[in-house]
Amino acid sequence: MEPVTKEPEEKDDADRYRAPALDKGLDILELLAEQKEGLTRAEITKRLGRNASEMYRMLERLVARQYVVRSAAGDRYSLSLKLFALAHRHPPTNRLIAEALPLMQRFADEAEQSCHLAVYDRGNLLVVAQVDGPGTWGMSVRLGSRVGLIDTGSGRVMLAFQTREHRAHMLAEHTKVKGEVTIDVEELEKVCERVRADGHSQKDSQQIFGVTDVTFPILGPSGHALAALTCPYLRRIDEYVAPSIEAVTGMLSETVKGLSVLGEE
């Protein structure tokens, strides 16, 4: 039997509806998504096997549309957080919240503390889920609140678990929230180094006396923070024996492990 030869009109849809310019842009985005420290234009051109001039034009457009950012020296390119921000307007964010809430509720019941989940949003953080503890007293952050990027546990954890380029982009987008405590860039970098080394942040709240913020990152497959889960820990001083901050930190760590798997699917 003679092999059947496809006529031009019978080509697969993948070939029939090709958009070369779009493919080039998507190739760049997919390549940069796998790079923690970004790539130079020459490296991108070589890895994709493309013409240098067409890569230059495409990169310039992606930078102009803020999907890609240049390093401070201007010689390396990496993904911005724009795709991440767009994803938060899409149902996968609802999935994260839906998956997180039962685990957050279990944590709150066992730890007898409240907790809240925050994601990066236009220069600061947005609280997208919140669960109260079971006790008479508690500390909670209102759902939908925007919290500071610089002086909160959630913000510092989100900054710590990003590439240097992404962190610079987040700081460039940042605008001060009411009452925000000022910190210089060098000191902030040291804070981020400590948070990365510890794997989480534990510090006295810079907004309210008597609260210790314990925050863990929810990590995606590249090791970057997709969200931050915080427990604003309150210590009981009466005769009731509640879980210690050490025990609560361990519980929050286990809760986050269950959520970080979501970023790997």
Automatic annotation (TrEMBL):
Residues 82-265 form the IclR-ED domain. SUPFAM superfamilies: GAF domain-like (SSF55781), Winged helix' DNA-binding domain (SSF46785). One of its GO terms (biological process) is negative regulation of DNA-templated transcription. InterPro entries: GAF-like_dom_sf (IPR029016), HTH_MetabolicPath_Reg (IPR050707), Tscrpt_reg_IclR_C (IPR014757), Tscrpt_reg_IclR_N (IPR005471), WH-like_DNA-bd_sf (IPR036388), WH_DNA-bd_sf (IPR036390). It comes from the Bacteria. GO terms for molecular function: DNA binding; DNA-binding transcription factor activity. Pfam families: HTH_IclR (PF09339), IclR_C (PF01614). Keywords: DNA-binding, Transcription, Transcription regulation. Residues 19-81 form the HTH iclR-type domain. This is IclR family transcriptional regulator.
